[in-house]
Amino acid sequence: MEKHFAVIGDPIEHSLSPWMHNAGYKTLEIDAEYQRFRVETNHLAESIKGLCALGFSGWNVTIPHKESIIPYLDHLTPQAKRAQAVNTVKYHQGQLIGHNTDGDGFIRSVEVDLREFEGKKAVLLGAGGACKGIALALAEQGMELTILNRTPEKAEKLVELILKEGGKASSGRFAPGGWLETVDLLVQTTSVGLHREPFPFSLEGISKQALVVDIIFNPMETLFLKEAKKLGCRTQNGLGMLLYQGALAWEFWLGRQAPVEEMGKALKNRLL
Ligand code: ATR
Hints:
Radius of gyration: 19 Å
Number of helices: 10
Bound molecules: 2'-monophosphoadenosine-5'-diphosphate
Order of helices and strands: EHEHEEHEEHEHEHEHEEHEHH
Strand order of the largest sheet: 2-1-3-5-6-4
Structural class: alpha/beta
CATH architecture of the largest domain: 3-Layer(aba) Sandwich
CATH superfamily of the largest domain: NAD(P)-binding Rossmann-like Domain
Shape: globular
CATH class of the largest domain: Alpha Beta
CATH topology of the largest domain: Rossmann fold
């Protein structure tokens, strides 16, 4: 193999990235391989040295290393700096460059459905790491954000960060309310639904114009998305975000367009 890529994290056995990237290399006949490695936190430094020594050109970074990898890198792209988290590393001419494609991957996954972002209203449920990247990217696109989290202090902290970056955001109660009638984009970023449990509140009364996204992709349709669909909304699961963050990482490493359709098919086949 001419080029080597990987994903590091812990746990890692459920990562779908190898299927998506390897399908892309096959489609474009690129002589490359993408592997996954479980890296425990106390071995992070050695594993970075190892990947460099073994000739890896780049790797994705997932939980729990997205923030802790930063001190080992030589440069950060503006996207990584803004999120203070790295999901993609490029090793080039002895330099390690940290990048983040999560936020822009999310934007790409919803832009066909949403068309315009500027001035539209987004409500984000949750305030964890996954929400942060999405919120900062949506704010940069000019959306007006409302962040609702079970623990309000975390939502307020995220709002402060967005305001500091020049975005528009406020926080509110983690409950249904008037916002349901005016929301253009509703994003579910909490871990509720991963274990197939119902979302804590009903979406009854939601605008039928709303695009409703759940960043969970396994199950492919959470109870949250099922309810939104029943109420007449367009819905999307987290596969789109996974696909486009991968496609953007691919483009960052290889400098050419990723075969998104084939990569998406590989993801779906793996999940079915
Ligand atoms: P990630 O990095 O994947 O976003 P995280 O930082 O642990 O993970 O954040 C998980 C999010 O899911 C948080 O917003 C969390 O709410 P709290 O900040 O109140 O903990 C939310 N969450 C998890 N379980 C929840 C539940 N049962 N009800 C509501 N929110 C929940």
